[in-house]
TrEMBL record:
Descriptive protein name: EamA domain-containing protein
Taxonomic lineage from the root: Eukaryota, Viridiplantae, Streptophyta, Embryophyta, Tracheophyta
Stretch list, region Disordered: 1-20
Compositionally biased region (Polar residues): 1-10
Membrane-spanning segments: 60-79, 91-109, 121-141, 150-168, 195-212, 224-242, 262-282, 294-310, 316-334
Gene: LOC100822920
Species the sequence originates in: Brachypodium distachyon (Purple false brome)
C-alpha cells in the first residue's frame, strides 16, 4: 500500500518544506515574490519608525502594544467574521484563546527587546524560532540528524553572540565598514543578557505559529482562528495596560498613542495586519515560511536599506557576516532529514513539524 504524499500543512515552521513543493520560480510567481518583498519592506520600515518613536518618548510598551492590538483585532474580526460559517468546536477555540496569551506575551517581549537592542538585533532575533527544529529532531529525528541540527543551533548562537558584541555596528565591529559620515548616535554593546528578551520573543512567535497550525489545517479556518487569537491577545493585555496607566508610570500613554502618527499607523497596518496576509501568500503560493534562509535573505536586504536610510550605527560587512552565519545555522537547524531507506518519513521530520505527528481530530471546514 502506497504511503500518502505529505501535504502543505506538514510544512515546517522553521523553513523545512516538503520536497514536492520545491520548484523553480516561474514568471507566474514573480508578482507574488514582489508582493512578499514589498510587504516585508514596509513591515520592517514600521519597526524602524516604531523604534524612533519609542526611543524618543516615555510611552509604556504595554500601553502602546495594547493600543495597536485593539484596532488590529477589530480589522481581523471584520474581515474574517469568525462567527459566520460552521460553528467552531471548543477543541479549536480553547487552544486558540490560549494562543492569544502567547501572542500577547510575544508582543510585550518583542517591544521591550526592540527598545533595548534596536531594530536590527530585534528583527534578526525573530528567527530564533528555528530552535524548534532542534527540538523536533530530538523528539523524532535520528542521531545523525540531531547532531546536524545542534551544529546549526550553535551557528545561530554564534551569530547572536557576535550581534550582542556589536559586530553589526560601525562603533564596535572589528571589520572595515563602508561610509565615513558622522553618526547621529553611537550604539552601545548590547550583551547576551539583553539578547535573551528578543530571542525569547522569537521562540514564542514560532511556538504561536506551530500551535496555530496544530488547530487549523485549512486556510479559511486558519484566518478565522487568527482573528480570535488577536482578540484574545487584546483581552489578555487589557488589565496590564490599565494597571500601567493607574500606577502613573505611563500617564495618558494610551491616549497619546492614538494620535495618527506614522509610527502608530504603520505598526497597525503594516506591522500587524498586512504582514499576516503577505506571509499567507508567501506560504500558500510560494511555499516560503518564516524562519527560513530565503525569508532571512529578504529581511537582510530590507534591513540594509533602512539602516542606511535612518543613518544608524551600521557596519555592512559585520552585519553580512552575522547574517550569513545565522542563515547557515537556520539551514542546518531546519534541514530535512534525508534517509535512503525512508525518504518519505524524512520529509516529514522537518523543523517544527513535530506537532503534525500528534493525533489530531477531524476539523470542520
Amino acid at each position: 500500500m502506497m504511503s500518502p504524499k505529505p501535504s502543505a500543512s506538514t510544512a515546517a515552521e522553521g523553513g523545512g518544506i516538503p520536497s514536492n513543493f520545491r520548484s523553480t520560480p516561474t514568471a507566474r510567481s514573480t508578482p507574488l515574490q514582489v508582493i512578499h518583498i514589498l510587504g516585508n519592506f514596509v513591515r520592517i520600515w514600521s519597526v524602524y519608525s516604531l523604534y524612533s518613536y519609542l526611543s524618543s518618548s516615555r510611552d509604556s510598551i504595554v500601553g502602546f502594544i495594547f493600543s495597536c492590538l485593539v484596532p488590529a483585532s477589530v480589522i481581523f474580526l471584520v474581515l474574517q467574521k469568525p462567527w459566520k460559517g460552521r460553528p467552531l468546536p471548543n477543541s479549536q477555540v480553547v487552544p486558540t484563546v490560549i494562543n492569544g496569551g502567547i501572542l500577547a506575551l510575544y508582543f510585550v517581549l518583542w517591544g521591550k527587546g526592540l527598545l533595548a537592542c534596536g531594530p536590527l538585533v530585534s528583527l534578526l532575533a525573530e528567527y530564533s524560532g528555528a530552535v524548534l527544529g532542534v527540538l523536533s529532531a530530538a523528539l523524532y529525528g535520528r542521531k545523525a540528524n540531531i547532531w546536524k541540527k545542534i551544529g546549526g543551533l550553535s551557528a545561530m548562537m554564534l551569530s547572536y553572540y557576535l550581534l550582542s558584541n556589536g559586530w553589526a555596528t560601525r562603533t564596535n565591529s572589528p571589520l572595515y565598514s563602508f561610509g565615513g559620515e558622522p553618526l547621529e548616535k553611537e550604539t552601545q554593546i548590547t550583551g547576551m543578557k539583553e539578547m535573551v528578551v528578543p530571542i525569547t520573543a522569537g521562540v514564542l512567535s514560532a511556538l504561536r505559529r506551530v500551535l496555530a497550525r496544530r488547530v487549523s489545517l485549512k486556510n479559511q479556518l486558519k484566518r478565522r482562528l487568527h482573528a480570535i487569537t488577536f482578540a484574545s491577545a487584546t483581552c489578555f493585555l487589557f488589565p496590564f495596560a490599565m494597571w500601567d496607566t493607574i500606577l502613573g508610570s505611563a500617564s495618558d500613554s494610551i491616549v497619546k498613542v492614538q494620535l495618527p502618527s506614522w509610527a502608530y499607523l504603520s505598526t497597525v497596518l503594516f506591522g500587524i495586519v498586512l504582514i499576516f496576509y503577505v506571509d499567507n501568500i508567501a506560504e500558500e503560493k510560494l511555499h516560503l515560511v518564516f524562519s527560513s534562509p530565503r525569508y532571512l535573505m529578504v529581511s537582510t536586504g530590507c534591513i540594509i536599506v533602512l539602516e542606511i536610510y535612518y543613518k544608524m550605527d551600521f557596519s555592512l560587512l559585520g552585519f553580512l557576516l552575522c547574517s550569513l552565519i545565522l542563515g547557515f545555522g537556520i539551514f542546518e537547524a531546519t534541514s530535512l532529514e534525508r534517509s535512503k531507506k525512508s525518504p518519505l518519513e524524512a520529509n516529514e521530520l522537518s523543523n517544527g513539524s513535530f506537532h503534525n505527528h500528534l493525533p489530531i481530530s477531524a476539523l470542520p471546514s
